[in-house]
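Q: I have 254 residues here and want to know how they pack in 3D. Can you give me a structure?
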Amino acid sequence: MGARVRDLQGKTALITGASRGIGLGIAHRLVSEGARVCLTARKAEPLEAAVAELGGPAHAIGVPGKADDAEHQAEAVARTLEAFGSLDILVNNAGINPAYGPMLDLDPAVLRKVFDVNVIGTLGWVRAAHRAYLGEHGGAVVNVASVAGLGPAANIGAYAASKAALIQLTAQLADELSPLIRVNAVAPAVVKTSFAAALYEGREEKVAATYALGRLGVPEDIAGAVAFLASADSGWITGQTLVIDGGLLLKAGV
């Protein structure tokens, strides 16, 4: 673990898409900082395993469901408050990328689903947390965007467009929910997870060579930044998107 951040001891975080990968990495970091966490994901079995990995119900609970389902959002928020008595931090990590290829070949129904989960679903989570707790008590929201949202992204245009929208949504919500709630985002490049495996598997060395720091990301790289943005150490930061890309954009000349 990196250097500790301030004021996460005893706080409660709800993390979407957290049964593996970046979401689970964030959960590990927040628990190590003394926070309690509610994890959400679609499938119950890996979620149960993640909760056990984090130390069980004293530290974590899991609520399975679809990220863009309003009933699931309300249930997860309610169970978080029931289990831990607060909901101080919301981490919107759930996202999908089911389409690969040119935008003109994309089924409009697939595009709608990507935006339903990655953008509209995120807004739904913020709305549910705001109504139940954050609106009265304040707190922090951290959205997991992507460097794909900062410019053209070959063959993953739907995902990129949704992440661009998420970056804008972050700024919009930061303005509307200030001063009580801070809203920020992180924008990772390729992180070594099963979600991103198609982008580097079998050619990791070649892909890593395009990064100034010479390697791909790991979940811990993102988790430290999220912990910072959720903590009092970033108490005068809102509406920002922190790029975490190992120097990819430097090498790309962007």
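Q: Anything worth noting?
A: Residues 12-191+218-245 form a domain with the Rossmann fold fold (CATH 3.40.50.720). The chain has eight helices and seven strands.
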